[in-house]
Amino acid sequence: MEQPRSKNRWGSIVFISAATLVTVLGAPWYIHTHGISRAEAALFIFYTAATSLAITVGYHRYLAHTTFKAGPIVRFLVLFFGAAAFEQSGLKWASQHRKHHQFVDTDRDPYNIKRGFFYAHIGWILFWKQPVSYENVKDLQKSRLVTHQHANYLGWSLGSGVFVPVLIGGLTGSWLGAFILSVATRLTLVQHSAFFINSFAHTFGSRPYDTSSSAKDHWLGAVLTNGEGYHNFHHRFPSDYRNGVRWYHWDPSKWLIYGMEKTGIARDLKRTSADQISEARLAVAKSL
């Protein structure tokens, strides 16, 4: 199979650098000179939460791992707000993530932590050309909505991630404020939160369920990533809709999925049995 090859991905370099500069320079300037209205704050909070959860709940636990089932409305919202995060189409994201699990910590892992923290965090996007095969997502290709978003990703992402928040901002106060805060700043925060799953969660923490993988559990990683920081559990039991398996673990993604089940818009949530979890922990304890 083709290996990743070194290549400057100028589109990604320019896009992420521009969003970062607007965030670091533009956001403080705008807040100092204009302040933040309630409408601007509400739009920023909503769009940040919606796009971040669309990645962790939607792209990750729903599309990549099919840890639960849902109807077309949920699928549309996942694809709409997922596109707004500018992290590629749901189909491509799921394909690369399934490959990550299959070949974790090897040269065929798209964001192999053994290449270094920076590579796993963002270097694999900016400076490497990653081979992509869609043979591992044939189940997702059966969805016309998923394939439409994939084929028309640029339109979906610009529409949901730029046009809609700027339009709402213009109608409720300031299009400029919406662009700086709800587009650029929101993108910077949401993307790095997702990137931490590949870098932080494979570097810091403990491995109570599986010592064969670099994936680790850490409470701070969970805070940074909507609960994805309980990553050792996730790599041991990837089909479980939970990452933070304890009731007190910070995992807003699992709480949202659970809430969706209780309201009838999600079903067939996959849960690892308590016996399997105990057996995994015992096996690790015996190996130490």
Task: Please describe what this structure looks like.
The protein is mainly α and 288 residues long. α2 packs antiparallel against α7 (153-172). A two-stranded antiparallel sheet has the order 1-3. Strands 2-4 form a two-stranded antiparallel sheet. It contains twelve helices and four strands. The protein has a domain at 5-203.
Order of strands, main sheet, comes to 1-3
Question: Could you tell me the number of beta strands?
Answer: 4
Reading the helices and strands in chain order gives: EHHEHHHEHHHHHHEH
Described by strand count, sense and barrel closure, the largest sheet is: 2 strands, antiparallel
The number of helical runs is: 12
Low-confidence stretches: none
Radius of gyration: 19 Å
Can you summarize this structure?
The protein has 288 residues and is an all-alpha fold. It is built from 12 helices and 4 strands, in the order E-H-H-E-H-H-H-E-H-H-H-H-H-H-E-H.
Short key terms for the protein model shown above:
two-stranded antiparallel ribbon, mainly alpha, two-stranded antiparallel sheet, 12 helices
